[in-house]
Amino acid sequence: MPPVPPLQHVDPETHVAVQRLRAAMPDAIEGISAHRDQVTVRIPKDRWVATAQFLRDDPECSFEMMLDLTAADYPPRPQRFDVIAHLYSLSKGHLLRIKTGVAEGDSVETLTTVWKTSNWYEREVYDMFGVQFAGHPDLRRILMPENWVGYPLRKDYPLAGY
Amino acid sequence: MADERPTWEIESLEPQAEGEAAVAAVLAEQPHAVQEQELLLNMGPQHPSTHGVLRVLLELDGEIVRKAIPDLGFLHRGIEKIGEYRQYNQFVPWTDRMDYVAAFTSNLAWVQAVEGLMGIEVPPRAKFLRVIFSELQRIASHLLWLGTHVMDLGAVTVFLFAMRERELVLDLLEMQTGARLTLNAQRVGGFPKDIPPGFLEKLEDFLRVMPGHIHEYDRLLAENPIFLRRVKGIGVISAAEAVQWGLTGPTLRGSGVAYDIRKARPYAAYDQIDFEVPVGSHGDVYDRYLVRMEEMRQSLKIIRQAADMLPGGPVMTDDIRVALPGKEALMTSIEAMQRHFILVIYGLRPPVGEYYSSVEAPKGELGWYIISHGESNAYRARCRPASFTNLQGLPIMVEGAQIADVIAAIGSIDIVVGEVDR
Fold this sequence. Notes:
The structure holds 2 protein chains of 2 kinds.
Chain A: H1 16-24, E1 31-35, E2 38-42, H2 48-57, E3 65-73, E4 81-88, E5 95-102, E6 107-109, H3 118-129, E7 132-134
Parallel strand pairs in A: 2-5, 6-7
Antiparallel strand pairs in A: 1-2, 3-4, 4-5
Chain B: H1 15-29, E1 39-43, E2 55-61, E3 64-71, H2 79-82, H3 92-96, H4 103-118, H5 124-152, H6 156-177, H7 199-221, H8 225-231, H9 239-244, H10 250-253, H11 261-264, H12 285-309, H13 327-332, H14 334-346, E4 352-361, E5 364-373, E6 380-384, H15 386-391, H16 394-398, H17 403-413, H18 417-421
Antiparallel strand pairs in B: 1-2, 2-3, 4-5, 5-6
Helix pairs in contact in B: 4-5, 5-6, 5-12, 5-17, 6-7, 7-12, 12-17
């Protein structure tokens, strides 16, 4: 059986959003990476909303739609949580993933002023991970009961609960 | 001279203004006689018209809804957390139980995400079969939507007609998988087994009778004045609002935005098939109805083409990272036995990385975002849920409407609470 060739990853610098960010907001890019055809941009927490606004409003980026906003838990890291958003441009047809790191007990600014759909997504991240979103109009639990203690999707929360 | 028009076309006789005038007159004499306050009405979680365990709190001013606040989580089962504790192929049955009305597209979304993460090519026969089954599932899902939605509005007959046709699709799904609802129909790399003999003949029978049935539903509903009064101009959401709120699927297309993943980021064999994506214009319940009805017709067209173009060959990839060796190799070659053992006991292992992949499920964009650390279970398995996001549009649609319009709007969004809550 022939060996499987290694995966090809696109060069993230070729993504138009990366090029526009490098030109207009170079300090907004903390790191970039790519897996196959998808590009990820890591953004410093204090530039989160400004970069999102730029990505939505810049005519060449034009990310009118936020597809998803979620989080991941990396307990050993000091900035334990990654808040991850997937953006899609209806007019241009490109996809981008943006991430930022948040420490436990710390908060990140809400994206509800940029894309209204982040309302429930951020509520779910708060519910499941305990990440606070500063400026969110209605930050309360969405899936778990309102008096639940604990954040189920954290890595130190047991699979079968307590 | 009495009004000659049928009674349902006569505009209301302004009872609201008359009532308010009467109340004002009484209050002028006796200031404390009548008190008004907003009523908080609880709809659900057990309610015949909320299509599952959905609770909506309605702040009412008489019959007018000032605010609708959905309360979710009654069907939350922690599926995303389970995704971190199961092998990639073991997790497929959990995807069945999220959108349980359209299980095939749920399976496909997960399996495609893993294939995207690993760079796995599925054989052409598998791609066309995926198209056929996805469109069959779209028809089944839309039939259930049609039946339950119009039954909520009072047209009970259509419910049983739609269920009768849905049985035809469920028979086809049962021929392939053995199950009608929770199919477990996909593995990473393709289908676990090929379609059985007799399947394509039965598919032909279905394609022959279905257009007549869709026409039947249209004859019952599309020009029905009672139905039109319940759905035209109700539950309106504009295109700009819909995009801002992240709506996808027919809920978005009813407002005029032509975003369909089968065209925008084609997967399976959709790039080789000629079909149209219906788009509404008013963003009301009626347009969403028309979009879904037309989608059913387009699905029949897609299945016709896919069945005609169906190539031969294997239905599972032979990529050694995910594919089990056949029984013969397993029994004769020690390397094949080792590979079989590793894949079954330990599970397939994607490279380190992350990938987002989505399909056009009947409800909207169903996506999976997988973060892999190179192990046989995902580090983070995130479902981008179509119904959850679409339900965010409900408060916008029903503000200022009446309670009956809330029922119409919930039906037109077409939610499955299993996907809303996961």
